[in-house]
Amino acid sequence: MADPKGFMTTPRQEWPRRPVGERVRDWDEVYVPGALLPIISEQADRCMDCGVPFCHDACPLGNLIPEWNDLVSREDWRAASDRLHATNNFPEFTGRLCPAPCEAGCVLAINQPAVTIKNVECAVADRAWAEGFTPPRPPDRLSGRTVAVIGSGPTGLAAAQQLTRAGHTVAVFERDDRPGGLMRYGIPAFKMEKHHLERRLEQMRAEGTKFRTSTAVGRDVGAGELRARYDAVVIATGATAWRELPVPGRELSGIHQAMEYLPLANRVCEGDIEASPLSAAGRHVVIVGGGDTGADCLGTAVREGAASVTQLDIYAQPEEERDEDSEPWPTYPKIYRLSAAHQEAGELRTAPAADADARLFAASTLRFTGDAEGRVRWLHLVEVDAARRPRPGTERRLPAGLVLLALGFSGPDRADGLVDQLGLDLTPRGTVARDAGFATNVPGVFAAGDAARGQSLIVWAIAEGRAVAAAVDRHLTGSSSLPAPIGPYDRPMTV
């Protein structure tokens, strides 16, 4: 550790965000450009170089956090980049999109604000690109084995890059017109500008990975045909089967799934369309669901010029601090967090019905009502207790011209026919079943990421991609030197 007293003398300081009034007028990332590097070395100095660094266990990738913190504090950016990329293919993605369970596991967080691990990671990744520390790494020789990866989200991309670098010939199949999965069309540009994604894709193409876009396996190409053409197949399609809200009035027009709404806004930013047909402009918007996808809808609706935006969360408002009895360190606690979108909604007072940041907690949707033309006009809700039982006398209604359902995902989408054509076994939860080696019941077919694990975090998705790559490499060659940071049954730390 460069400064043995850094954690005592330097307060936590995070990457500052741009003023709300400025950033809601564009789709650029919310942070002040160039404001991270001047503070990051001192922030890295706060790392205590713990004898037992629990941040390693909290991160499924096993990131070497104390090592690259020390290197950043000494401003040895090349070495820091090497240590960071040793365990993470895409640190510029996780540095922007991961909720940082590593910070919850930081030993300093026992009684002080944690080290800004996520900010340090992002700074290293960005500096690595700026300084040319991340050139393509094509294999020295090819193995003669071929692999098809279905899905180009973080799991599919990580698996493809690892397998390509191991010498296998890899083709990634993506049903959308551009690769990237949810990072492309689900994550708004104000959270991660797409040039970060394009940069990695170009690196992967230079290494030899092939991309087959606008190709839905099971529909545009038969799953059986793909299995016959390739020595191994990796299913990394994600958990895209969205959950429904079966309440009266659901059939009214103006009620849409979040993943119907968000891709259209991203396509506007890509220049594909001039305006979204589901734009929130001038409409009263209600978002049902309190998670990250709901917050993405919130920030998007604010930028589109909604008349009002309210977000419903069925859970009670969390406490400001960790409950040491129910969620002790180093688990990831459910506490009150203020995302950039909630900060924007709070300052702009987008939700008159909410107390502060556009969220109504402990709120459950009862029904929708509409006008004579069948368009939604009102959402009727009720307050609920901890067991989700309605509280008598608390029913009320909110104006709603656009309702967005952000209720999570249950498993892979079966509409394309991939699952049924291959005859894959599923778990009771609807995810693809696999054994301890990531293999499905179909020989030569492997499953990883949300399609098999269920809805999870980007850091788990990348870890799954790296681990399944090692399993496929072993299947093809009999052994593997590729890292496998997790097993298929590993789960986050809980009580």
From TrEMBL:
Keywords of this entry: Amino-acid biosynthesis, Glutamate biosynthesis, Oxidoreductase
PROSITE patterns listed in its UniProt record: 4FE4S_FER_2
Family annotation (Pfam families): Fer4_20, Pyr_redox_2
This protein's pathway: Amino-acid biosynthesis
InterPro entries assigned: 4Fe4S_Fe-S-bd (IPR017896), DPD_II (IPR028261), FAD/NAD-bd_sf (IPR036188), FAD/NAD-binding_dom (IPR023753), Glut_synth_ssu1 (IPR006005), Glutamate_Synthase (IPR051394), Helical_ferredxn (IPR009051)
SUPFAM superfamilies: alpha-helical ferredoxin, Nucleotide-binding domain
Domain 4Fe-4S ferredoxin-type: 36-69
Protein name in the entry: Glutamate synthase subunit beta
Native species: Streptomyces anandii
